[in-house]
Write a structure and sequence with these properties.
By secondary structure, the chain is an alpha/beta fold. It folds into 2 domains: 272 residues, Aldolase class I (TIM Barrel), CATH 3.20.20; 104 residues, no CATH class. Helices cover 42% and strands 10% of the residues. The strands form 2 sheets. Strands 1-2-3-4-5-6-7 form a 7-stranded mixed beta sheet. The protein has a two-stranded parallel ribbon with strand order 8-9. Helix 4 links the parallel strand 4 and strand 5. It is globular and about 70 Å long. The structure holds iron/sulfur cluster. The site of iron/sulfur cluster has 9 residues, from loops.
């Protein structure tokens, strides 16, 4: 295989992989300063987080962009007239090792279009990971995409060689999936997820008894949802996330705004991309559910189906629940402290620690890192200097926005001006 052909395949298959955000990707600017193989710039290097929280750079590619399916939202769909390519198993192994040796990457993110069948494709993805681990002694990070509908045996093997597995839900509702990806069924995603969840539990339990038990997908499993392709509101999206977090022990759900690329009357028109702010608000809500003790129904429900774009979801909740405030930071429990706008979990823990020694005032809170421009309307402390009383939620929101220097406020006004 010539160097040019490998480079061409890499260009096609790294480009096709960029639509999958389930490995927290971002581009790389690393150039090859020698005359070695490849130049990492624009060639699918992304970053991800390992089990222990380290940020690692990954080679992010598809095994192939041939696909037997025709999902309307996907560039790789069979009816799309694009350049196609496929790597052989050994080529991906060689690329990974070569990039690793040149210090371009610390691991591999490997996904694929479905060629022939789910098992035929999955078998090849597993073969790459297996060769890397057993033949090349590769100990870097491996994230394998699970192919919907892959058999239990292959999923079991995949987790023995990969650090993380993910299968994409793609569309938040079954009706949306039916409309845009008629070849796919919800069960095809759920089956591998259940298998991975059960294997993780079983291997962990066995490891407690037999120390030599290998690790199974130690970085867990994740998924991705495409936002804005099938008209779901934020309430439906976050309900789906909540369901998958609770039932399949997912580490992360990723939200990827759909960028209209084709004329298809089932899809939003070209030029109506999902505002980045919406993605951002969904991630914030996800964070509130996982780390701040919020139930999804507190933030989104039948009466409130869309997240506010101009304020973050915690502030939105606080403004709708002013009867819960002000909170005394010197006596409130952790749950309530976490609900104060402007307080991250780091600040919450610092407050709990610091108040063991003294009663806290505004100066202390400022030093702790509390964003007082938001928090001041919702708290009381050991000083009544800034206390604001009897303000309506509209008034508070107006004051906060007026004093906000947030980049989101800036980008919101840019985005809204497009509709002006
Ligand atoms: S199965 Fe996957 S790769 Fe194939 S068209 Fe659907 S989303 Fe794209």
């Amino acid at each position: 295989m010539s160097f040019q052909r490998t480079q061409e395949k890499l260009k096609i298959l790294a480009d096709a992989a960029k639509y999958d955000v389930s490995c927290s990707s971002s581009g790389s600017n690393r150039f090859n300063t020698t005359k070695g193989l490849g130049d990492a710039t624009g060639m699918g290097i992304c970053h991800s987080y390992t089990e222990d929280g380290r940020c690692v750079s990954l080679l992010k590619i598809l095994l192939t962009n041939y696909c037997i399916f025709d999902c309307a939202y996907c560039v790789t769909r069979k009816s799309n007239d694009i350049k196609r390519a496929a790597f052989k198993v050994q080529e991906v192994v060689d690329l990974t090792i070569n990039f690793y040796r040149r210090n371009y990457i610390e691991g591999l993110f490997l996904s694929s279009g479905i060629f022939k069948s789910a098992d035929y494709t999955m078998e090849r993805l597993v073969a790459v990971a297996k060769k890397l681990r057993l033949e090349e002694n590769f100990n870097g990070y491996i994230h394998l995409k699970s192919i919907p509908g892959a058999s239990d045996e292959l999923m079991r093997e995949a987790g023995l060689y990969a650090d993380r597995l993910s299968v994409n839900i793609e569309i938040p509702t079954e009706s949306g999936l039916k409309k845009l990806a008629p070849d796919k069924k919800r069960e095809d995603f759920i089956k591998p997820m259940v298998k991975v969840k059960n294997e993780i539990i079983q291997y962990k339990a066995e490891k407690k008894i037999i120390k030599s038990t290998p690790k199974y997908a130690p970085a867990g499993q994740s998924t991705q949802m495409i936002i804005g392709a099938s008209g779901e509101n934020d309430f439906q999206i976050m309900q789906t996330s909540n369901f998958f977090y609770k039932n399949y022990n997912l580490k992360r759900v990723y939200y990827s705004g759909y960028v209209p690329i084709s004329y298809d009357n089932r899809l939003p028109q070209i030029g109506t991309a999902v505002p980045m702010l919406r993605e951002n608000r969904l991630y914030q809500t996800d964070w509130l559910m996982r780390f701040y003790g919020f139930d999804v129904s507190e933030i989104l429900n039948e009466q409130h189906q869309h997240l506010d774009l101009d304020i973050d979801p915690k502030l939105g909740w606080a403004l709708r629940n002013l009867h819960e405030f002000p909170v005394d930071v010197n006596t409130a429990d952790k749950r309530m402290l976490a609900r104060i706008p402007g307080l991250g979990m780091k600040s919450v823990h610092k407050i709990i620690n610091a108040r063991r020694f003294r009663r806290l005032n505004w100066e202390h809170l400022k030093k702790i890192g509390v964003a007082l421009n938001r928090a001041q309307y919702f708290i009381i402390c050991d000083s009544n200097q800034f206390e604001k009383r009897d303000l309506t939620s509209e008034k508070i929101k107006g004051l906060i926005l007026q004093n906000s220097t947030s980049k989101y406020r800036k980008s919101l006004s840019n985005q809204l001006s497009l509709f002006g």
